[in-house]
Amino acid sequence: MIQERKKNNPKIVVIGGGTGLPVILNGLKSKNADVTAIVTVADDGGSSGTLRNYANIVPPGDIRNVLVSLSNIPSVQKDIFQYRFDTNDHFLAGHSIGNLIIAAMSEMRSSIFEAIQLLSKMMMVDGHVYPAAEEALILHAIFEDGTKISGESKIAKERKKIERVYVTPTEDDHKAKASRKVLAAIHDADMVVLGPGSLFTSILPNLMIDDLGKAVKETKAKVVYICNIMTQLGETENFTDADHVCVLHQHLGKKFIDTVLVNIGEVPENYMDTERYNEYLVQVAHDFKGLAEEVPSIISDDFLELRDQGVFHNGTKVVDELFKLAFDNRRLEKRNSY
């Protein structure tokens, strides 16, 4: 019955990383979407960065969170997979069990792609999860002053305006390329969703893989960008919503985004715990005139979810909007085909 409903629902590919991606994926799963997640592999901080350097694997953190968001295993098993060792545990300090399992399975299978597919079966994942590439990538940033830095975790610390970013494999003797099945998923999709997530360090690292970015530009699917609610320290300080879109278009050399989802809900003054969420600054300012010059369609609504003294996208409201947009596009295509 579920598979039958999926056949009638849109094929949606979501590209990104960070904490925003699982929120959207969880909402898509609840609506029985035919969903594929393409996950960044340029993270080099925290547990992921340590395992990446120590075991020479693709950073597992974002992959772990995506697997959990699409999993149908009992919540207690998810909690075990997500459990992070205490900082007093020395050797295991800061590592989550899921990261260690992904690292072990990558070594067992000699392939991050095969490891994820096996884990997807074990965790009863409802959808497809693919790494953006099958090797760890290094994210490089060139700043407006001409200086350059390498490493995703170092970029924001510079507090400089970013001119552009690009990626290279750790072994710089070849070009980065998309993981198997990624390009086919993008070309076969009804909709490709970017974000929500850090513009320069969660979304663009995927699009900077040449064949992946080319596929997003060429797909017949509608491309939707979910704009961030807050500006980010060292990345998008003083950015408007139009600035976010403009950066994406400049990096790919084409105005490829069809629709932007913009939050217009107001974050209450002094609501956020600025120590806990210290990377977020102020709400993204609106520039609807600038957006209209970049994209054909803008959807604005109160997409806010306030919890734990933090600001998040309301996954249910965002996904309802994505589904409505996908079905409207499908009806339009049918009408045009007559």
Average pLDDT for all residues: 91
State the distance separating the first and last CA atoms.
30 Å
CATH architecture: 3-Layer(aba) Sandwich
Number of helices: 14
Q: In words, what does this structure look like?
A:
The chain is of the alpha/beta class and 338 residues long. It has a single domain (2-41, 132-337), classed as CofD-like domains (Rossmann fold), CATH 3.40.50.10680. The chain is 41% helix and 20% strand. It contains 14 helices and 14 strands. It has helices at residues 2-8, 20-30, 46-55, 61-69, 75-82, 97-109, 112-122, 152-155, 182-188, 199-207, 210-218, 241-252, 288-294, 315-337; strands spanning 11-16, 34-39, 128-131, 137-143, 148-150, 162-169, 191-194, 222-226, 230-232, 259-263, 280-283, 297-301, 304-307, 310-313. A 7-stranded parallel beta sheet has the order 3-2-1-7-8-10-12, with helices on both faces. Strands 5-4-6 form a 3-stranded antiparallel beta sheet. Helix 2 links the parallel strand 1 (11-16) and strand 2 (34-39). Helix 9 packs parallel to helix 11. The longest helix is centred in the C-terminal third of the chain and has 23 residues, at 315-337. The protein is globular. The chain starts with a helix and ends with a helix.
